[in-house]
Design brief:
By secondary structure, the protein is an alpha/beta fold. The chain folds into 2 domains: 219 residues, Isopropylmalate Dehydrogenase; 140 residues, Isopropylmalate Dehydrogenase (3-Layer(aba) Sandwich). Helix content is 40%, strand content 22%. The chain contains 12 helices and 12 strands. β8, α7 and β9 form a beta-alpha-beta unit. α10 runs antiparallel to α11 and α11 packs across α12. The longest helix is centred in the first third of the chain and has 19 residues. The radius of gyration is 20 Å and the shape is globular. The model has no long low-confidence stretch (mean pLDDT 96). It binds 3-isopropylmalic acid and magnesium ion. The site of 3-isopropylmalic acid has 4 residues, from α4.
């Protein structure tokens, strides 16, 4: 049988730096655990624009459709701020999500013990925090039509459309309920049913789907209250299911509860392919961080943990994913810190590749 295939799209800014540490981790699993991947690399975002004049070449899109999983670094940077909207780096990422139909975006917000005093919230509010946000990723206001900037009378009007079909709400809800079944069996659905019809439908459909998951305790919350509750008492949540735009905002909020965006991975999953694996793209939640790009300062942990999610969700290697996550925890517990994880009085931060060295050493020690 041939090896499972991975397409690496390192992208822009710190993407290539953090991804090179992931490459070392992938190599470690091949050398030590017999897990070999056929890895290919290509361009996305500004890097693709520089070469091809588009943020995602059609050939790259086709490759992404064929591989078992895509690993993405980050896209964007100030250099591309003035580009036409249609070729901005972010459009490359949105195209991947849309054409691969990656409807379920899993964004865990987990507080590592060694970092619990990094949060802007009191330590006791976040210690042990473990939330899974499931964000619908292929519809809603990100993609709804009509959209555009139009002339109306003697002024311009900007239009975007929040649109959700029943089946779009339902398939994401099923993904969220399935995850809840494997966790603490609590699901909170967030929308704005008080002001939006799409929110009313959202609540109805999620309630209907819940009949198939009687063990899961379902609650509903208006998304604004959800934002408030996330900073008031975040540990009340287990799984949160919400739409594309609310999910974008709420997941940044939840991410910061943990103290560092540099620690958080994500998985974007679609329907199963012929081989039973879901279409999948894994990426860190952090962006391209142009302010520190190219300096060897970036924290590779979020990208490494995204590969752990790939092991778990694409390759049914939950035990190996646990091993990798434990290695990250160990390195943090040992006090190894990149710059983003330094307290004001902290010592000298390690570089991106030194963090990689520490991770590989922790993996060696796990054998
Ligand atoms: C995210 C990002 C993207 C989004 C951008 C880069 C298009 O903020 O993944 O959360 O808005 O979805
Ligand atoms: Mg975002």
């Amino acid at each position: 049988m041939s090896n499972p295939s991975l397409l690496i799209l390192a992208g822009d800014g710190i993407g290539p730096e953090v991804m090179s540490q992931v490459q070392r981790v992938i190599g470690w699993f091949g050398d030590n655990r017999g897990l070999n991947f056929d890895v290919s690399e290509d361009l996305v975002g500004g890097a693709a624009y520089d070469k091809h004049g588009v943020p995602l070449h059609d050939d790259t899109m086709a490759k992404a459709q064929e591989v078992d999983a895509v690993l993405l670094g980050a896209v964007g940077g100030p250099k591309y701020d003035d580009l036409d909207f249609s070729v901005k780096p972010e459009r490359g990422l949105l195209r991947l999500r849309k054409e691969m139909d990656l409807f379920a975006n899993l964004r865990p917000a987990q507080c590592f013990d060694a970092l619990s005093d990094f949060s802007s919230l009191k330590t006791e509010l976040v210690a042990g925090l473990d939330i899974m946000i499931v964000r619908e990723l292929t519809s809603g206001v990100y993609f709804g039509e009509p959209r555009g900037i139009f002339e109306e009378g003697n002024e311009r009007v900007g239009i975007n459309t929040q649109r959700y079909t029943e089946s779009e709400i339902e398939r994401g809800a099923r993904a969220a309920f399935e995850l809840a079944m494997k966790r603490d069996k609590r699901l909170c659905s967030m929308e704005k049913a008080n002001v939006m019809e799409s929110g009313i439908l959202w609540r109805q459909v999620v309630t209907e789907v819940s009949k198939d998951y009687p063990e899961v305790e379902l609650s509903h919350m208006y998304a604004d209250n959800g934002a408030m509750q996330l900073v008031r008492a975040p540990k009340q949540f287990d799984v949160i299911y919400t739409d594309n735009l609310f999910g974008d905002i709420l997941s940044d909020c939840a991410a910061m509860l943990t103290g560092s965006l540099g620690m958080l991975p994500s998985a974007s999953l679609g329907a199963p392919m012929d081989n039973g694996r879901p279409k999948a793209l894994y990426e860190p939640v952090h962006g391209s961080a142009p302010d520190i790009a190219g300096q060897g300062k970036a924290n590779p942990c979020a990208c490494v943990l995204s590969f752990a999610m790939a092991l778990r969700y694409s390759f049914a290697e939950g035990g190996e994913a646990d091993r990798l996550e434990a290695a990250v925890e160990k390195v943090l517990a040992d006090g190894v810190r990149t710059g983003d994880l330094m307290q004001a009085d902290g010592g000298t931060p390690v570089s991106t590749s030194e963090m990689g060295d520490a991770l590989l050493a922790a993996l060696d020690a796990s054998l």
